[in-house]
Give the backbone structure.
Amino acid sequence: MEMTTRPFIANTGQLDAIIVGAGIAGLYMLHRLRQAGLSVLVLERGKGVGGTWYWNRYPGARCDVESLEYSYSFSERLQQEWNWSERYSGQPEILDYINHVANRFDLLSGIQFGTKVEKARYDETHACWIINTDQGDRITSKFLIMATGCLSSANIPQIEGRESFKGATYHTGSWPHHEIDFSGQRVGVIGTGSSAIQAIPHIAAECESLTVFQRTANYSVPARNGTINKTYEAEVKANYAEFRKRNRMMPAALGSTFTGSNQSALEASPEEQQMEFAKRWNIGGFGFLGAYNDLTINKESNDVAAEFVRERIRETVADANTAGLLCPDSVIGCKRLCLDTNYFETYNMPHVHLVDIREDPIQRIMPTGIRCKNTVYELDDIVFATGFDAMTGTLLRIRITGRSGLTLQDAWKAGPRTYLGLTVKGFPNMFLISGPGSPSVLTNMIVSIEQHVEWIERCVSYILEKQYSAIEAEQGSQDGWVEHVNLIASKTLYPSCNSWYRGANIPGKPRVFMPHIGFPTYVAQCEEVESAGYSGFEFY
Ligand code: NA7
């Protein structure tokens, strides 16, 4: 649904809150703040709601968290009335759902679409934020809430000659809104992350030839998607609140398939290990990494899981050389595990070809294709499945200036620093939803979003009730939090590979492990801070 309306609210006096972004987070934030009686406006650069699900329209785009879990839990009626059609929902269905929520809770009237926030400056004298947009708006607001998403700034690599390409180019994260017909086309896909792994089987089914340019092989386990199991759905809906409550206590807030284990892989015999991994492989989904309790912290245990996946790849892909190239050699799970439907099988199609660009690096893009060091590939279309400047990219593209002229770019020069992943020292009354330093991308995002939104709403209401001008993180609490997040990461295998969690996919980006590993402990930490009257914050 494309929106063009500009709500009346933008030209009125000072607002209580500006929310940037009308994705899953921004919409719920709007709903909660309105319920709390605040005047709120959402600014959204897209022409519709949905955020991630508005932009990522590439063929095969699908959620990797099960539908009955990847949905809002704040309204019992909403969760009862909405019916999902598949175990894992595709992008169109999720976007329909988000539009439904926006309509059902009358949220559209609070959103100004087609509006990009360019600058936000904290005015210390009046204790408010002054926000400037690319549409010429200048809006003042007491609170600034960034609901800008973790994967919302596309990473398009600076390959020489990119502009000279005569065919069509696409990025998975800003896909056109019309159907793309690849039939008869020679298509090149750069990247083999989660987006590529979902898109490749679909593009291959249509095109004349497909060349995949792989820099790093990726682990993927079968999603085992299918129509939703109606019996299971009925069981969940019979006691949805309890189901949600249980999931919120699970590691990563993933419920149904992520039945964990109390055992180390090293305590099991090789036969038991194979049986356990095979069982989870057949069920499909992230539960594969829950087979043993030490897969993300013990390299020896991790190796067993990694080798199990490599064996499945060798079993699936007929050409031994291609299979070898598709076998990752890194720690499994230290980049987000991919879930696929027929990804590895696709390489058995005669018109699908894999290029190892570590062996034969891309040198330039030419008008008619891609030139690698040793080979030239003639192409009609290039798909960049090259990911995002994750977690900080969108925030740093907006010129955010806090107290004493401090910019977020300067404050985060050596990597993002937050208190609880929710606030930044020097930026009073600014909140981040799923910011760096919170579990966000290591969880079922909607669970994390709801937790952040509800925490922020209570905090904002508290400030208004107490008639404070502002809240700001204390230096010591922020430093302590950053240290805490780093310490947890250092005890795991996560920092061992070049993932976007560490900023390693973007040349020049500081290498800092950004998410907090430790849901649901994190939630208890936020609650403790709150119940202690917002310890670690100062009010003025
Ligand atoms: P990802 O997971 O960041 O994957 C991007 C892919 O693009 C990955 O294979 C990268 O290789 C590759 N890439 C990035 N830059 C280049 C250059 N310059 N040359 C060649 N290849 C490159 O993004 P996705 O969109 O697939 O998935 C993002 C998240 O969405 C995912 O984690 C899920 O949470 C859902 P690399 O591995 O860096 O060598």
Summary: The chain has a mean pLDDT of 96. The first strand starts at residue 15 and ends at 20. The two ends are 43 Å apart (CA to CA).
